[in-house]
Amino acid sequence: MNIIIFGPPGAGKGTQSNYIVKKYNLFQLSTGEFLRKEIKENTEIGNKISSIINSGSLVSDSIVSDLIEKIISNKKYHNRIIFDGYPRSLAQAKNLDNLLKKNNQKIDIVLKLSVSLETVKKRITERRALEKRPDDNEQIAIRRYETYEKSTEPVIEYYKKMNLLKVIDGERSIDQINKEISDIIALI
Predict the structure, then answer these.
(1) Which residues of 82-100 are buried (b: 16+ CB within 10 A; e: fewer)?
(2) CA angle, corner 17, sides to 13 and 18, nearest 5?
(3) Which architecture characterizes domain 3-186 according to CATH?
(4) Beta bridge partner(s), residue 4
(5) Residue 88 in 3-state DSSP?
(6) 3-class DSSP state for residue 29?
(7) C-alpha distances in angstroms, 8 versus 19, 70, 85, 142?
(8) Do the beta carbons of residue 134 and residue 32 sit within 8 Å?
(9) How wide is the angle at C-alpha 6 spanned by C-alphas 63 and 43, nearest 5°?
(10) Could you tell me whether strands 3-6 and 165-169 are parallel, antiparallel, or unpaired per DSSP bridges?
(11) Could you state, in chain order, the average pLDDT of each consecutive group of 10 residues for the chain (188 residues)?
């Protein structure tokens, strides 16, 4: 089973992905985590990524696609991936379909955590106190939220037309969201 989880920064994608990974023995492909790792290790690509993210923009498709392909082509993760933070554009969604097809896989379900900008700002402020992520400040959060909404709208529509999209109220408690996700996955 391959799953995509959508939601703006601070929506709880990471929290919900971790839950799904543990419950269904999947591999969490968090592009954000992979990109932050490059930044933390101060690699050349990490420095490029850092300036892109800090300006509120998205990292290039080619950088992300290479990362994704390494995971999809690994037999260890065959039909066991939850995509967290990818795809973020229609081009990435089509690229993902091609990469999966090439490796005899497909997306089984697409989950969208729906949250307001006010909730995102509140959660990012709380998270900043705990995790100290450099991309967690209110101005960057607002830009990232707006960029996310604008860029993912066509992607959400793409998966909606394929009857793969399930929208989840991300304003509720973690446990309530976990239960709804489990109920949806049980129907696959």
Answers:
(1) bbbbbbbbeebbebbbebb
(2) 120
(3) 3-Layer(aba) Sandwich (3.40)
(4) 83, 110
(5) coil
(6) strand
(7) 18, 25, 9, 10
(8) no
(9) 25
(10) unpaired
(11) 92 90 94 83 87 83 84 95 89 95 97 92 74 66 84 94 97 95 94
Query: What does R_g of the chain's alpha carbons equal in angstroms?
Result: 16
What pLDDT is stored for residue 37 in this prediction?
83
Which amino acid makes up residue 161? K
What pLDDT sits at residue 130?
64
Strand duo 81-84 + 27-30: pairing = parallel
| Residues 177, 170 contacting (CB under 8 angstroms) | yes
Burial class for 152, CB neighbours closer than 10 Å (0-12, 13-18, 19+): buried
What is residue 23's three-state secondary structure?
A: helix
Amino acid at 187: L
188: its two tokens = 């696959």
Structure tokens at 148: 């996310």
Q: Where are the domains of the chain?
A: 3-186
> Strand order of the sheet with strand 27-30?
27-30, 81-84, 3-6, 109-114, 165-169
CB under 8 A, 24+ apart: contacts of 49-52: 50/134
Distance, CA of 181 to CA of 26 (rounded, Å): 14
For residue 82, what is the enclosing H or E element?
strand 81-84
Report how far residue 83's alpha carbon sits from residue 142's, in angstroms, rounded to the nearest whole number. 23
